[in-house]
Amino acid sequence: MSVRKGLSILAGVALVLAVLAHFNTSLGIAPYLLVLATSVLFWVIQATSWNILSGYAGYFSFGQAAYVGVGAYSVAVLTGRHDVGYPVSILVGGLLGALLAAVTGAVAFRLGALRGEIFALLTLAVPFILAAFVRINRDIDGGLGTTLPLPDFPGWVGDFQHLIFLLMLLVATLAVGTALWVQGSRLGRGLNAIHDNEDAAEALGVPTFRYKMLAIVLSGALGGLGGALLAVRNGAVQPELVFTLTVPLFVIVMSVLGGRRHWAGPVVGAAFVTVLQDELAAQELDQWGNIILGAVLVLFVVAAPDGLFGRLRVRPWLTVGVFVPVLVGLLLSGQYTELDAILYAMVAAIVAALVVDRLRPAPGAVSSPAGHLEPSAAPTEGARPTEPPATRPAGAAPLADLPQPAPPPVPPVAQSPPGELVSVAGVTRDFGGVRALDDVSLSVSSGEIVGLVGPNGSGKTTLVNLLSGAMPPTRGTIAIGGRTTTGLAPHRVAHTGVARTYQIPKPFASMTVRDNVAMAVMFGRTGASLASAREAAVRHLATVRLEHLADALPDALNLHQRQLLEMARAIAAEPVVLLLDEALAGLNPAEIDDAVAVIRRIHAAGISIIIVEHLLRVLNQLATRIVVLDRGVLIADGEPATVLRDPAVVRAYLGRQRA
Amino acid sequence: MTAVQAALSGALIGGLYALMAAGLSVTWGALRVINLAHFGLILVGAYLTYQLTTAWGIDPVLTLLVSAPVLFVAGAALQWAYDRLNIVEFNSLLVSFGLLMITIELTTQVWTADFRHIDAGENPYGTSAVHLGSIALPISRLVALGFAVLLIGGGHLVLERTFAGRGLRAFAQDRTVAASFGIDHRRLGMVVGGLAGVSAAVAGMVFALGNTIAPAHAYEWFGTVFAVVILGGIGNLLGSLFAGLGVGAFSAVVAVLWDPSYEPFVLFLAIILALVLRPKGLFTRRAAA
């Protein structure tokens, strides 16, 4: 579904709801349903707000109550104490929510280590601090609570209940529309990549910090607006009612229950949980409410992490087809209240969808947008991870007489000036007291394949990390194509034309092989829409001969295929220089020949390569030059044949006694 | 003098923070489970002490004979379930948050949301204090510190000196390699989970000695205890002891010298600064990269 279509449907639904609510008395809709719907809409806002950051990007927040509280107290202070108009105070609520989110994000996302966990705990603390502040500060609350006047509104709206419903509907539509738009945009794809693997996303050119900040600010603004409306609805604000842990409990349960990766998940979850809570209250079982919600949370995280919506949307018509008749049937029977009928119909629809889904599993339907997995290739390959790929029987000819049916050309690379491409000047890198690289200088010209070798712990991977910008050097400068990259964020370094692979492949697990590569095209130097990026992705997959697995998920790939995927993703960014970090590690001889052929094809397309490798035999044939590191010091640099005979190199590799 | 008095008695409260943090820190560091349900266990420990002391009229410390085994089983069972369902890190936050909610609601059902406290008659530690010159140190807090030093010091020695401790550290660093060297992570994990449960029993007992108990306390512990865990270095037992004492003293001094309302701000500012400057905790040894 395109974003435009989705937004129009959303606007249509909102309009229908508004009309239904406006004429509720003439349509025979009971007033308490309007009250219930207002509650549902409030939770739709909060759950959607939570999901934009925590669902899409995977940064769990326990601090939703902070936004609710800030929004509510904006109204309480401005309107309740200083007689500012409601429209202003509600908007200020949204603004302050965004501001609080920006501050939280700017602090939490700057902390390097343990990003996700620290973020979760920091957000857990924020509402407590705010609550303490509000309780103590007499200009805000002082612990007594604040009451609010009834707002003025034009007569055509109806009564207060209609007004607050319309306001909630407006903000909920805004929230869901935002979530829908984000999901379809570059921002959404980037957040998804952050969720799957933040380092790889950054290395591919996704501006992860900016995207996370955007997501958290959107989340804070929507949460604040919702909180402001809550204050208007309740007519009173008390610290313990807004800064409560029930808020994060509710939004987390709603999103986990509904599904975290899709905008509709929190909507489904909010509707179900709110109706359930109301029913429990009606049965005077509300003290069991949190116990049931806690149990639902545990159950769903363990058993169905995709959430309900992941299951429901596989069979949308079945869900609707069960829900509507059951609802109408129960209502017509006259034995059930509307609330009971709605709840039972929801449960029936969910059960039906889950049961049918269990009976006839739709392969890959949840996570693969294309929806048609190749039936044989992917799963069997995954089951035998050590076997060579199906296209190349084991022990096949070495790469010289490879059957090469005209390898698809790699797209031409932007021409960079000839001569020096990578320049490393006097680079030192310390980790605590350990010097991993010591005054290393190195120059790579375009067209070269430079082999980077050295014993374990000699600083090879550190050098790759410095070149790709994953960490800054302690001293010295690095320039790519004449441009200094020292101090740039990794995604900016990527945009200067550096791409890398990881020794241990880091694919985006929730995306198909094709979309993994398409991410690199979208966020590469040229930038592209998702549709055109998907087309380009298939070309790059063909370069590494992985096109037959385009619709598989990375989990179904063996190690060799994952390494090839890493390479396809790297060249899709259209780099001028490609850093291969032990791309041949753990492969069998046939796979190594295959990978070497791929590396030659990439090189033939005009990409310079720096390859970290232990297999000197392979490097001897592949590299145009070899650079040797030993304990952080560059000890040799030159022709492969010369370097590999160098006594210092032999000593470094084989130990002193042999020298 | 007030600052010294505040720092000392704050450091003693810090013993309680350290006790609460120790179990959390170990399961996080060694088993990669961020167990929010630990706060629920502490709460249950506190209520068990209250209940048994009130019902049987025994010394509160003796209630550990019941609550420690009970919470050992609970902690081990939790870890068994986490391990069985392969719940680590992020998911453990969500699942244990759900479990914490359930625990808090259940304790509310049993003991109501009202404040409870052990009657002075049954609590020999409640009101008495040791006087050092003009400085008064409440007995209940000295008990807290004593248990903290005993438990955390003992745990530290076990981790450093015994085979099981080494196995656990190996397991924390690389599960697969540790498993291939014959370390049974399931059993080891359950023992660690159980010991975390015991630490929760002690922390709950100590809390019950000097405070009133209500289910909502579980939330109030969050901020300070996680601060102690992070400042001490995740998985670092001695670190959490020092961090506990430091945090206790620091916030008490801030409360006395400025205003109690600044306490949370100053504390969290300190944590954020510490995270920026020493992201792996204040008391970690510099690791070679």
UniProtKB/TrEMBL annotation, chain A:
It is found in: Cell membrane. It is a multi-pass membrane protein. Keywords: ATP-binding, Cell membrane, Membrane, Nucleotide-binding, Transmembrane, Transmembrane helix, Transport. Residues 365-418 are annotated as: Disordered. The keyword Transit peptide does not apply. Residues 392-403 have a biased composition (Low complexity). Residues 422-656 form the ABC transporter domain. InterPro entries: AAA+_ATPase (IPR003593), ABC_AA/LPS_Transport (IPR051120), ABC_transp_permease (IPR001851), ABC_transporter-like_ATP-bd (IPR003439), BCA_ABC_TP_C (IPR032823), LivM-like (IPR043428), P-loop_NTPase (IPR027417). Residues 404-415 have a biased composition (Pro residues). It holds the Pfam family ABC_tran. This is ABC transporter domain-containing protein. It comes from Asanoa siamensis. The lineage of its organism: Bacteria, Bacillati, Actinomycetota, Actinomycetes, Micromonosporales.
Automatic annotation (TrEMBL), chain B:
The keyword Transmembrane helix applies. It is found in: Cell membrane. Keywords: Amino-acid transport, Cell membrane, Membrane, Transmembrane, Transmembrane helix, Transport. CDD domains: TM_PBP1_LivH_like. The keyword Transmembrane helix applies. It is a multi-pass membrane protein. The chain crosses the membrane at residues 6-26, 33-50, 62-81, 93-112, 132-159, 188-210, 264-283. InterPro entries: ABC_transp_permease, BCAA_transport_permease. PANTHER family: AMINO ACID ABC TRANSPORTER PERMEASE PROTEIN, BRANCHED-CHAIN AMINO ACID TRANSPORT SYSTEM PERMEASE PROTEIN LIVH. Belongs to the binding-protein-dependent transport system permease family. LivHM subfamily. This is Branched-chain amino acid ABC transporter permease. The lineage of its organism: Bacteria, Bacillati, Actinomycetota, Actinomycetes, Micromonosporales.
